[in-house]
Amino acid sequence: MADEALFQFLHSEIIQYVNSAETGESENGRCVSKLENMGFRVGQGLIERFTKDTPRFKDELDVMKFICKDFWTSVFKKQIDNLRTNHQGIYVLQDNKFRLLTQLSAGKQYLEHAPKFLAFTCGLVRGALSNLGVKSIVTAEVSVMPACKFQVMIQKI
Amino acid sequence: MADEALFQFLHSEIIQYVNSAETGESENGRCVSKLENMGFRVGQGLIERFTKDTPRFKDELDVMKFICKDFWTSVFKKQIDNLRTNHQGIYVLQDNKFRLLTQLSAGKQYLEHAPKFLAFTCGLVRGALSNLGVKSIVTAEVSVMPACKFQVMIQKI
């Protein structure tokens, strides 16, 4: 419980700080991209530790399953609720109660703030995948809080 | 293990980001004070959760012991190694292997960077104490890494 709280509070502080530090015309975009970059580096670091003792992954799907189960549980204390793929390099990870959105009120008026609360995690996933040799673009969308979907588009090299 | 790593990586990202965002004449001072403020708010939040089910504290020393044992263990996975006081409102908390300094090389040339790595924690302690009704000033000093001492000066109201 302690650790979760620490992560959540730190995450909020970061959003608040980055949001206030990035002023200028395209501030919102820059804020989101800074947060995404932070997440990327943290994801890279974390996956190295997490996979230290795991056997080699069979394929891309195997990697995605690891992200949805082990990685997600370590960071967010629950698994991804649903993983779908078109078998052509697109994966959709659905979390029905995404931890970093649970502090936000569920009202529709807050939906516009959701990207700031998802950017770090998009980067986290992209960074983790990147260090497992999978290049990707990760986006997120929310329709009803606190449920949210992360879309991973694999970039074939 | 996962949680520790997450906290450490996030903490490093914050230092790096705040350090790069606060440019100007007195940049180093502002960086440290921003980090301290973040720590303060996180400390306030955490202590509320941690003390939800604990009995009321007897006195100031009782509060300090809680910080050194329970609070420190929750956040840094170990207790403070030594607590001293002059019984006149000054407490010195010594951590012989402070987690947030263990990533830094122990060379003397890095000592000047230590304040950035301690500011968040100073705020954390000040915030926690503040929400327990103890107003304080918290400073930190390092003589040999990764050992470090936090000095808490209670502000009598």
UniProtKB/TrEMBL annotation, chains A, B:
Provenance organism: Culter alburnus
Protein's name according to its UniProt entry: Trafficking protein particle complex subunit 6B
Gene3D superfamilies: Trafficking protein particle complex subunit 3 (3.30.1380.20)
InterPro entries the record matches: NO_sig/Golgi_transp_ligand-bd, TRAPP_component, TRAPPC6/Trs33
Primary role: Component of a transport protein particle (TRAPP) complex that may function in specific stages of inter-organelle traffic. Specifically involved in the early development of neural circuitry, likely by controlling the frequency and amplitude of intracellular calcium transients implicated in the regulation of neuron differentiation and survival.
Superkingdom field: Eukaryota
Family (UniProt): Belongs to the TRAPP small subunits family. BET3 subfamily.
Pfam entry (one): TRAPP
Listed GO CC annotations: cis-Golgi network; endoplasmic reticulum; trans-Golgi network; TRAPP complex
Keywords, sorted A to Z: Endoplasmic reticulum, Golgi apparatus, Neurogenesis
GO biological process terms on file: endoplasmic reticulum to Golgi vesicle-mediated transport; nervous system development
CDD domains attached to this UniProt entry: TRAPPC6A_Trs33 (cd14944)
Keyword Endoplasmic reticulum among UniProt keywords: yes
Broad class of the protein's primary localization: endoplasmic reticulum
Intracellular or extracellular location(s): Endoplasmic reticulum; Golgi apparatus, cis-Golgi network
